[in-house]
Amino acid sequence: MKIKVLGCYGNYIGKYRATSFLINDTILLDAGTITEALDDEALKKIKQVLITHTHIDHVKGLFPFVDELVMMGDYSIELISVKQVLEIISQNLLNNLIWPDFTVIPSEHKGIIKPHEIPMEQVSSINSITVEPVLMTHTVFTVGYIVKEGNKGFMFTADTGPTKRFWAVARETKGIEFIIADVSFPNRLDRLAKISGHMTTAMLVEHIDRYGLGTMPIYVTHIKPIFLEEIHRELDALKRDNIKLLRQGSTITV
Ligand SMILES: [Zn+2]
Ligand SMILES: [Zn+2]
Predict the structure, then answer these.
(1) What digits encode the pLDDT tens for the residues 60-97?
(2) pTM of the complete model beyond 0.90
(3) Closest ligand to 140 CA?
(4) Region 199-216: what's the mean pLDDT?
(5) What's residue 80's pLDDT?
(6) How far is the CA of 194 from the centre of ligand 1 (A)?
(7) Which ligand has its closest atom nearest to the C-alpha of 9?
(8) How far is the CA of 106 from the centre of ligand 1 (A)?
(9) What is the CATH number of the domain that holds 125?
(10) C-alpha 68: how far from its chain's center?
(11) Which residues contact 32 (CB under 8 A, 6 or more apart)?
């Protein structure tokens, strides 16, 4: 499995882009960045978009992407998530007020966006990969994912504050080669992290140690760009080689 990091920051400003990972050239995991990073030929290859939650920095890429698909001709995508997330999208984004309802455009039977609901904590197949949503602790309904191809894969926390289930599942799941985990704020902003449903460096370490994942390779994501240097220093001070920053533009292979 090939994972290209189109964006991995907790805000989009300057060169820093919002969360989006392109898997095997055809599946997007979150939609914070699409058209800024991919040309039309690459856009045409995307068939599925898997969503963790409805915050704008994780879905905003859908709008220019779908618009471009309309211009290019006969294309459609499956929009995949759990029921609760798809409902929020349908009621609040594709509501003909914020954006047209592309599930019935160009026609009721042939929408460009085809919603595809998947069950919580069950394995669903998408092309060559499988995905399993796990409930996270954020300010809106949010799922993290176990993503596998064959018996190997990775896990993604999405946006999350301190949480239990994800880490317990991570401890039990075989074949996980790394975890991509939210660290949005430096340790001094512990309170802000908790209120906004995110983690600090110290919270991440506390969780992985508590769940016996202290040596699991971890890629830190969703850093607020303004705190990038500060969080980098905090990670360096840990002296743990297994915890690294996720790099925008990089490709990870499982
Ligand atoms: Zn976010
Ligand atoms: Zn969020």
Answers:
(1) 999 999 999 999 988 999 999 999 999 999 999 999 99
(2) yes
(3) 2
(4) 98
(5) 98
(6) 14
(7) 1
(8) 31
(9) 3.60.15.10
(10) 22
(11) 6, 7, 12, 17, 18, 19, 20, 57, 58, 59, 60, 61
- Rounded mean pLDDT of the chain? 97
pLDDT in tens, 155-192: 999 999 999 999 999 999 999 999 999 999 999 999 99
DSSP result, the chain: -EEEEEE-BSS-BTTB-B-EEEETTTEEE--SSSTTT--HHHHHH--EEE-S---HHHHTTHHHHHHHHHHHSS--EEEEE-HHHHHHHHHHTSSSSSS--TTSSEETTEESEEEEE--TTS-EEETTEEEEEEE--SSS--EEEEEEETTEEEEE--S-SS-SHHHHHHHH-TTEEEEEEE--B-GGGHHHHHHHT--BHHHHHHHHHHTT-TTS-EEEE-B-GGGHHHHHHHHHHHT-TTEEE--TT-EEE-
Ligand (nearest to CA of 136): 2
Token pair listed for 148: 């596998």
Residues spanned by the domain of 95: 2-253
Residue 130 token pair? 């499988």
Residue 106 confidence (pLDDT): 84
Q: How many domains does the chain have?
A: 1
CA of 183 to the centre of ligand 1 (A): 11
Q: What is the reported pLDDT for 109?
A: 86
Question: How far does the centroid of ligand 2 lie from the alpha carbon of residue 66, in Å?
Answer: 22
Quote the tokens at residue 65.
């992407």
C-alpha 235 – ligand 1 centre gap (Å) = 20
